[in-house]
Design goal:
about 190 residues; alpha/beta; Rossmann fold; six-stranded mixed beta sheet; four-stranded antiparallel beta sheet; 4 helices; about 20% helix; about 30% strand; globular; disordered N terminus; magnesium ion binding; guanine phosphoribosyltransferase activity
C-alpha cells in the first residue's frame, strides 16, 4: 500500500478525499490483460461466452475485461440486493434486474468487482446454476480473503486486498468515487459519522 505522502495520488475530481492508492491504474490494466488472456485460452473452443456483470460496481471491470478478451463475448447485466438485519449478513437476496436472455446450454462467466463475505455471490451462483448453463465460472477483480465466509471456486482473481474500505474503479461510497481510475482508500473523516 502506498501512503499518499509517499506516492503522488493521481489528479481526481474528489480533491484530497483519497488517502492512499492501493492498486494503480497501470497495475489494474496489466492484471486485467493477464486474466483476459487466461480466460480467452480456457474458452477458445467453447463458442459464445456470456459475461454476466453484477451492477453497479463491476461495470468498469467488465468493460475493460471484455475488450481485453481475444474471443467473442456477449454481455448481460444483473442487479441484486442483499437484505435482512443489518447486524448480520443474512445471505437473503432479491433480484432487482434479471438477465435479458436464457443462459441454458451457454458458457457463463460472472464478472464481479469485489468479494467480501461472498454470501451474495454464493446465492447468485446457485440461482444461475438452476438455469442450466453449459458452464458457470466466476472472475473477480478484488477479493478480501480475511472476510470470505462462502466457499466459492474462482476462475481468476485480480488482487487479494486487506480488509479495508476501498473505492474507485467501480467501487463507491454513497455512489461517489466509482469513476476513479485506481483502487484506493478514503480519508476516514469522509465516511465517519
Amino acid at each position: 500500500m502506498h501512503d499518499s505522502k509517499d506516492f503522488n495520488v493521481p489528479a481526481n475530481p474528489y480533491g484530497s478525499d483519497v488517502e492512499a492508492v492501493l492498486i494503480s491504474e497501470e497495475q489494474i490494466a496489466a492484471r486485467i490483460q493477464e486474466m483476459a488472456d487466461a480466460v480467452s485460452e480456457r474458452y477458445r473452443d467453447s463458442g459464445d461466452l456470456i459475461l454476466v456483470c453484477v451492477l453497479k460496481g463491476a461495470v468498469f471491470f467488465l468493460s475493460d475485461f471484455a475488450r481485453a478478451l481475444s474471443i467473442p463475448s456477449q454481455q448481460e447485466f444483473m442487479a441484486v440486493s442483499s437484505y435482512g438485519n443489518a447486524a448480520s449478513s443474512s445471505g437473503v437476496v432479491r433480484i432487482l434486474k434479471d438477465l435479458d436472455r436464457d443462459i441454458e446450454g451457454k458458457h457463463v462467466l460472472i464478472v464481479e468487482d469485489i468479494i467480501d463475505s461472498g454470501l451474495t455471490l454464493s446465492w447468485l451462483i446457485r440461482n444461475l446454476e438452476g438455469r442450466r448453463p453449459a458452464s458457470l465460472e466466476v472472475v473477480s477483480l478484488l477479493r478480501k480473503p480475511e472476510v470470505v465466509k462462502a466457499d466459492i471456486d474462482l476462475l481468476e482473481v485480480g488482487f487479494d486486498i486487506p480488509h479495508e474500505f476501498v473505492v474507485g474503479y467501480g467501487l463507491d461510497y454513497a455512489e461517489n468515487y466509482r469513476d476513479l481510475p485506481f483502487v484506493g482508500t478514503l480519508k476516514p473523516e469522509i465516511y465517519a459519522d
